[in-house]
Fold:
Amino acid sequence: MTTLYIRLPARADHEGALARFALVADGGALIQQGEGALRSMGDVVAASRHVVLLLAAADVTLLQVKTPPLSNARLKAALPSLVEEQVLGDPDDCVLVAAPAQLDDGTRTVAVAQRGWLEAIVKALLAQGARTVGAVPSQLCLPLAPGNVSGAIDATGITLRHGLHQGLGLAMAGTPAMALQTVRALAGDSPLNLYVEPAQLGEYQALVAEAGPGIAVEAEHWAHWIAGAKSTTLDLVPGLGAAGAQVRDWKKWRWPLRLALLAVVVNLVGLNVQWMRLKREAQAISAGMTQTFKTAYPKETVISSDPAAQMRQNIARARVLQGQVTPEEFTFMAAAFGEAARAAPRPVVLASLAYRERAMTVKVNPESADPGAAKAIKDALAARGLDLTDSGSGTWVIRAAGGKK
Structure:
């Protein structure tokens, strides 16, 4: 995954000037760098995970505004009124983004940029395939040393940073001597770290030697700008609202969505056909069971929704009439329990005996109840087709093996 950094020239020269760019891997390695018109960067923009615009310092004004203690949402709504006296024109035509408060009195930096201009650039990048776009002021991307002022001079003007969220820019064309004199005046008495284009490094070093101490000059490179862009949190794109978010092109998803919908319809039809087939099979089985019951008992009406259960009841009733006892009857359970109790390590003293819903509940005197007795009786009952469940506190429930619990 990669991040594309684009240094835009000042807005006055934007249409005709070239923008510098650098493609950087997540680990910080510089993959590609170059220069070109923004509209010709489609391939590298689409291949990047994130695009970061370094807006020319002359195009972003950083104001110091005293703000009341408000939530982020209310502060955003109040910003146009707070900066109205410091902005030329209508604040509603500007992108306004506030940095975190730096002082106890609520003073904070507010970045101001022309909305229509920034929105057009962001939309152009999104149209080229950018996934996400950020835009930060170039003046806040310069290295910052405590007590020093950082400045940069290039063909489009001057960039100056003198605080965490403080900086300015000036679009100007002139000789290196004039640019150096201007940036020195803007920096005041503070030591100045000056970054210049590598091709002009020698010329500026000669000018600095003549100007005297207080100015350190070195060649600028992408590492400076990238490190600064990562450290600043003042991103102007959120100030655009929905205009800064990627708009999905649903046309390219038209056929995949149609195919997905078709697959859903086919599966629903298949499920309904399967359900109808299973329903018919269930009806056929039920009809067969009813017919079998009527064949066995022609004089009896099927009154149960489960003919098999009704037949089992009739068979059990017939066995009783013939003198046979089934495992689900109380007599069988009581007799089997009496015989099984003899297998216990010591005599079992009964507290109560109850029969309900084809299950016999035996409550044992706590003094005679122990896990060994329950285990021995359970094994003995299993040999007689009965199952014993110990529900705790000396209460045993006995049912026919395989019976409903």
